[in-house]
Amino acid sequence: MNIVVCVKQIPDPAAPASLDPNTHNLDRTGKLILDEADTYGVEMALQLVDKAGAGEVTVVSMGSAADLSGVRNALAMGAAKAIVVSDDALRGTDALGTAKVLAAAIKRVNPDLVLCATESSDGYTGTVPVQVAELLGLPSVTFAKSVTVDGSTIKIDRQTDGGYDEVTSPLPAVVTVTAGVVEPRYASFKGIMAAKSKPVEELTAADLGLAAETGAAGAGQQITSVVAAESRAAGEKYNDEGDGADRIVAFLESIKVL
Amino acid sequence: MSNIWVVVEPANGALSTTSLEILTHARTLGGTVSAITWGGQGATLAAQAGEYGATTLHDAGDLAGALPGAPVAGAIAALVASAGAPDVILIPTSYDGRDIAGRLSAKLNTGVLTNVTGYSADGTTEHPVFGGTQIVNARFTSGGPGIVVIRAKSFAAESAGGAAATVNSIAAGDLGATNSAKIVASHVEERVGPKLEEAAVIVSGGRGLGEASAFALVEDAAKLLNGASGASRAIVDAGWVPYSKQVGQTGKTVKPTVYIACGISGATQHMVGMKGSKNIVAINKDADAPIFQVADFGIVGDVHKVLPALIEKLKSR
After folding, report:
1. What pTM does this model have?
2. What does the pLDDT read at residue A137?
3. Does the beta carbon of A6 lie under 8 angstroms from any beta carbon of chain B?
4. Structural domains of chain B in order of their starting residue, each with its CATH number
């Protein structure tokens, strides 16, 4: 079975994030890494292809091709090839524009299954996978906490407010996986070396016929201002000298919780 | 703003709390509020929808086990085609709400704004970013109804005492393969004590607990305080506790009377989900942990010592 995993290269979440004061775009000038949320989809895809006994995993990404270490990381884990849609004109593209780009790139692969994270860890819009599904005319199942494939049917345990639903869908389909759905492997040295020579196809928005619908001009919304939020002041802080529990009880009494 | 549509989610024979919060806010925007639901229980839900301000309740009907995303978005798109577009479509942030929003955005070729915590009559949205330290204001620039996905607890739900809404049946056109994901069984995880998003007291645990078994301390303390137990993303991802306990950007938004964070450092992902708590207590061995910047009351100490001692104190009361 052939699987596409949509991945995103994001600024390292450990580094302080900021918005460009003029464009309000997220500052992406620092080092980019593979969004950890995407590693679960890559792992899931590798396991499903392995179980099927045939096929391959393709990663599809939109973003700068200047630094492809995040995409190479997915290849080092075991994905066979990558398609990266990279174009200065894509800067400022909104969620729907992103979905159009990804959907057009995915069409070239014509996969049995598309896997995505539930949301990215930098923009966390959380609608792109479903927008991709709609644009491709496919069913979608979001928030999968377990995924199995049985012939041309996919079975998913989908997170709900109170527990989970068992959901089935015919393939092809778009599925978003929660973190923890599988344990992502670390790339081996062999995998890292092999990734260097795996094919990475670079495309522009124009290659996909989407130049007019993407970029900041094609976005359906814009940021008008960014302001500091009302901040909470830090309160009292004590070192625990064996009296920590007593102090907490006294505080809970003072706010009438006890 | 004259014409506002609100997607309201059925939940156990009533409308979800977040739906009621959004209906309440929609009333203040100065237009006619119509609600859209599904499940074929429109006649039952019309009283509550009306009470919170909707004049009409559109019901997409029984979905025959299909996941709501595709058929409800399809029914809304059909309603736009027949009745004309509203000024805005407000949707709750939930598993199904986000599915509906994404599908609808692609169907109508219109923008979608998510993680919204404020929306004003001039169409400006508010989004907390970077752990809630900054607020981004945005607005739609293209035509077509903007789709706004609003987080839980952004507004307080208040009844307006309105008459029952008029029920109207709506249906999607041909959905093709998009409507073929079906629910075959539902499982409810057993829960002791109050729901996380409704509890007055929440005791939450993070990576600082060290190992999965230590989460029992968090649960014991929560039980003794008649509260709910919560968790940071780190220990949910590690598989220590189910996802339903996750508080934060990806999980639940909570605003209890007191939130007791045990061994939680305070990653931005977590803070955005609990910063609105009335009181925050933090126990963490790292005196420089970001959680102390928002805590009203902090104990710098070992959670493995402080929590058992706290449990003993609470037991003896």
Report:
1. 0.92
2. 98
3. no
4. 3-179 (3.40.50.620), 196-315 (3.40.50.1220)
